[in-house]
UniProtKB/TrEMBL annotation:
Cellular component terms per the entry's GO annotation: cytoplasm; nucleus
Organism: Gigaspora rosea
UniProt subcellular location: Cytoplasm
Chain ranges of the Alpha-D-phosphohexomutase alpha/beta/alpha domain: 44-182, 209-314, 325-450
Family: Belongs to the phosphohexose mutase family.
Protein name from the UniProt record: Phosphoglucomutase
GO biological process: glucose metabolic process; purine ribonucleoside salvage
Highest taxon of source: Eukaryota
Cofactor(s) needed for function: Mg(2+)
One GO MF term: magnesium ion binding
InterPro entries: A-D-PHexomutase_a/b/a-I, A-D-PHexomutase_a/b/a-I/II/III, A-D-PHexomutase_a/b/a-II, A-D-PHexomutase_a/b/a-III, A-D-PHexomutase_C_sf, A-D-PHexomutase_CS, Alpha-D-phosphohexomutase_SF
């Protein structure tokens, strides 16, 4: 095994950035071996989410060197796997985070040095414009430099394949291997993209085409133009404001009222701790203040790279309701369904998708209404690729969503798109207002028609991977799994309810199939266990690929909302007390 000294020497040999060089030199001079081990011992892992980490020196972090190495590996993998990849080119975009433009420029330089055509967006863009550009330009791949809704110290490197979807296995493995074989920097010059004839900036052309395609999704522009409804919008210090203004114009909606403190890009996210609309009223406090001041009852929010979308509504008792991703999802699905019915096309040709941790309500709607529904693993890398596969089978896949406020409407982008969702939902609110309804009343109408689906989704914080693995092994193998780790011993009850179904996508075990093998993909690189109770409750525990969290998703449905809610609360308590045991394992609660 390499010594810390040799790891430091290798870093200093490769790194040409004086700031990150100085970080490692200082740590070494101080004798901070533990921190050097964390930074240098293991390489940042390239997975289906690409790269994401804090921006610091070290092989395990996001910095100039690791971005260059990732780009070189991706470049060589494209050359090996996609014919004419050099001519097809790559699309590269970036957001407003610290170092995003530099990382994008260094990425572009790697491809340009090998003769690739590079479509380099020279201004801040929201993430969906990268996969849209890949689709429109028929490029070999796309790269978006963003950490989405992560804290300010993080950045990321998201990759889209030639089908304009996020990469899935085995592409990630192939890219990872290619990175390992191309660690020596080819070129280290962020200005290499300037005045390079292979570097094309066509962001204006791509943006025009994107909004023209979105325009076709608007069905009520006359009503939109006539409405005097007030909407408040927040970009949460991200890049969404220009796109939000433009989608309102495209749908003939009156411009939203912007939360001025959060309207402009700010890489320090100065008014929020976590720039994620899912975090609740603390993150949306300024938007609610703005809404109160101007007399608006609806708030829309995008996350910083504007691929996620959130809705809040002020109720008659002056309290705010923040709708969950599942609730927004079924309301958007109802719009797509109603529009498809109005087209006169056969419903059996319509397909919708959601993930295994999302609400089962969409599956129930599909069963009642007669369209096709399919479930995938979590993440739009799976949803987008599944949509393309179903298209090949003759389906029109016009909606997909995941509970983490990600929505795909139509086929403009085979990825989540918070701007598309923003225009579509605003149009729904206008139509509801014509009927004299608010959003909550419409959601209740859907519940009465299809059943009350009550969900509880949250997480515990855990920064220790061994602890996380110990918790899941305990669930899987019992209290004392070692050394007899391979004898399965899942719990048989939870919160006094019998468990009659287990699916473990980490080890590949599913009690609902004849051979006990899951139909969904299995991966041992993350933890994911789903259980079903005798009362119909479905719960999933999983780890996050980008954050130190153990997430849980619990859902129960029935005809009596109060009874379902009470019973679900007991089950959620059981998940904590019986399965996760936060006090025993030192887990932090959400927001801590």
């Amino acid at each position: 095994m390499a010594t810390v000294k040799s790891l430091v020497e290798e870093w200093l040999r490769l790194d040409k950035n004086p700031i990150t060089r100085a970080e490692i030199e200082k740590l070494y001079a101080e004798g901070n071996i533990d921190e050097l081990e964390k930074r240098l011992r293991n390489r940042i892992s390239f997975g289906t989410a690409g790269l994401r980490s804090s921006m610091e020196a070290g092989f395990s972090r996001m910095n100039d060197l690791t971005v260059i190495q990732a780009s070189q590996g991706l470049c060589m993998y494209l050359l090996d796997t996609i014919p004419n990849a050099i001519v097809k080119g790559v699309v590269i975009g970036y957001d407003h985070r610290h170092n995003s433009e530099t990382f994008a420029r260094l990425s572009a330089a790697a491809f340009l040095s090998k003769g690739f055509k590079v479509y380099f967006y020279r201004k801040l863009v929201h993430t969906p414009l990268v996969p849209y550009g890949v689709k429109k330009l028929k490029a070999a791949c796309g790269i978006m430099i963003t950490a989405s809704h992560n804290p300010k110290q993080d950045n990321g490197y998201k990759v889209y394949w030639e089908n304009a979807c996020q990469i899935i296995p085995p592409q990630d493995d192939g890219i990872r291997d290619a990175i390992s074989n191309n660690l020596e920097p080819w070129v280290w010059d962020p200005n290499f993209v300037d005045n390079n004839e292979l570097c094309i900036d066509n962001i204006n052309e791509i943006s025009v085409a994107y909004f023209e395609e979105l325009k076709a999704l608007s069905c009520h522009r006359e009503d939109n133009a006539a409405s005097n409804l007030k909407f408040v919008y927040t970009a949460l210090h991200g890049v969404g404001t220009p796109a939000a203004k433009r989608i309102f114009e495209t749908f003939s909606l009156k411009s939203p009222i912007h939360t001025k403190e959060q309207a402009d890009p700010d890489p320090d996210f100065s008014t929020v701790t976590f720039p994620n609309p899912e975090e609740g009223k603390g993150t949306l406090a300024l938007a609610m203040k703005t809404a109160d001041e101007v007399g608006a009852r609806v708030i829309f929010a995008n996350d910083p790279d504007a691929d996620r979308f959130s809705v809040s509504e002020k109720q008659k008792n002056d309290k705010w309701t923040i709708f969950s991703g599942n609730q927004i999802g079924v309301m958007l699905a109802s719009i797509v369904l109603n529009n498809y019915k109005a087209s006169g096309k056969p419903l059996e040709k319509l397909a919708m998708l959601s993930t295994t941790v999302s609400s089962r309500m969409l599956a129930k709607i599909a069963k009642i209404e007669g369209f096709y529904f399919e479930e995938t693993l979590t993440g739009f890398k799976w949803l987008g690729n599944a949509a393309i596969d179903l298209e090949k089978k003759g389906y029109e896949v016009l909606f997909a969503y995941e509970e983490a406020i990600g929505f795909m409407i139509g086929d403009v982008v085979r990825d989540k798109d918070g701007i598309n969702a923003l225009g579509t939902f605003a149009e729904l609110v206008v139509q509801l207002d014509k009927r004299g309804m608010n959003i909550s009343e419409y959601l209740d109408e859907l519940f009465k028609k299809y059943g009350y689906f009550v969900t509880e989704n949250s997480y515990f914080i855990c920064h220790s991977l061994p602890t996380i693995n110990k918790i899941f092994d305990k669930i899987r193998y019992g209290e004392n799994p070692y050394p007899y780790k391979y004898k399965l011993s899942y719990p048989t009850t939870l919160a006094n309810h019998k468990i009659n179904y287990i699916r473990d996508l980490t080890i590949g075990y599913d009690t609902s199939t004849i051979d006990n093998r899951p139909t969904l993909p299995v991966t041992d690189s993350s933890q994911m266990i789903t259980f079903g109770l005798e009362n119909g409750c479905i719960g999933t525990l999983r780890t996050s690929g980008t954050e130190p969290k153990i997430k849980y998703y619990i859902e129960l449905s029935g005809s009596d909302k109060e009874k379902v809610t009470k019973e679900l609360s007991n089950i959620v308590k059981g998940v904590a007390d019986e399965l996760l045991e936060p006090e025993k394992y030192g887990l932090g609660y959400r927001g801590e």
